[in-house]
# Entry
Amino acid sequence: MASSRKVVLRAVLASLSVLSARGESGPGNYTFPDGFMFGVATAAYQIEGAWNEDGKGESMWDTFLHSHPYYTPDHSNGDVAADSYHKYMDDIAIVKELGVEYYRLSISWPRLLPNGTDNNISKSAVRYYRKVIKELINANIIPVVTLFHWDMPTPFMDLGGWANPQIVNYFRDYARVAFNLFGDVVKIWTTMNEPHQHCYNGYGGDYFAPAIKSHGVGEYLCIHYMLLAHAAAYHLYDEEFRPTQKGKIGITLDAFWAKPKNSSNPDDIEAAERYLQMHLGTFAHPIFSKQGDYPEFVRNRVDTLSLHQGYTRSRLPYFTPEEVISLRGSSDFFGLNHYTTFLMSSSNSEESWAVPSMDYDTGVKLDQDPKWLKPGSDWFSVYPPGFRKLINWITNKYGKEIPIIITENGLSDFGGINDYARVDYYNEYLAQMLQAMYVDGCNIQGYFAWTLMDDFEWKDGYTSKFGLYHVDFNSTKRTRTPKLSAINYREIVRTKKINFDFIEKPSSSAQSNRIKD
Ligand code: NOJ
# Structure
């Protein structure tokens, strides 16, 4: 693994020197290096539909949305979604049309194992995923498969989901089934998608299913056992499957960029660092740092506050020394999802923070600058420089030898084919990423746009959109139509360059995401 990392790193460095030799400058002039992985990403619950077909078991999202029909503003759920269970050939055709070489998809755990356990493997699900993967490969598209993109089998959710330590073993069993069945053709795996969002919003809060609201306790149990389950799947692959299947396996983490609200106020600067440590370091430090384990700051903070709050034990569980070792280095790449930036200021308490809670433990108030474009979801603003800064933060903390793959990045809006804001977003965010690569020397190996097509966007239902392709949710055909952003992305992939003028904007919509920093 270490040697292959070096080879890839050498390739990046080689292309760097070619670039500087050409003396090019300016983000528009950088060329993506040969071998750069361009892709698009999706997730099972958000696109597949067919929630109860062919023996599929229920996921906690099925169960939650059926019993909370008013959770989404449009009272929707993922029962049909983009109907990819039936229309996967259409999906593969549009991935092909984009010209990307990689497609990131997730397996629905309860589709493959209807009860969650490995004593009952669904033959239809095996046929379905094998067909999808085979058709991708026939189309010269490399599948990148996520094992867990938030759709926990309901029978396990009923037993506490990630808060139950036994889930580590059951996740390993599921991973074994997946590696056995698909590992001959899948060579890039990610274990977990965005454990922070999943635990913080679903176990600590109620923004996502399972909406447990066990703030201050639940999110840390979820984090702890998700991390251990990740390590269990990694070692299973590394020891039992990698020798013959020869693939790679990693984790996908997410982070906003944390920008100090007042960049000359030391409290805000410290708050921003604190936020990144809590949000991202909590997951990244155990896996990617040389020391391993939770970051010292996070450990001390939650321990101290727990003590003050009268708990006998820290609300953040401890790893055993063996677990620290097992987690350290347990990822072949750093999968990063990034969307937006928040402004950070220090605060001791806010009305909206429960006590205890991860918010209270973090002690940082989040805002966004009203000047930033806000084209869709309420949490989403456009601030391209944050992408470069975040990549640099990760590189500085965990080192250049870890290859970073951007497993998701994309823009939220309220729909429409003429998505100029999305075109700008991709151009500007990719330009920042290129600067992180070429100017700052960060080791970025791939980029996956989120997402291939409009889909079920969790809390927003179908009201906000992230797709490169429009999906007609009013038609049973769920017709896919390229947006301008799809045409623009295809051109970037084809030319390996960003052409900021490729999509001509009508003067009336001449807003730009370009922000000077
Ligand atoms: C990250 C999640 O992985 C994905 O499922 C979601 O749709 C996007 N963020 C946009 O919110």
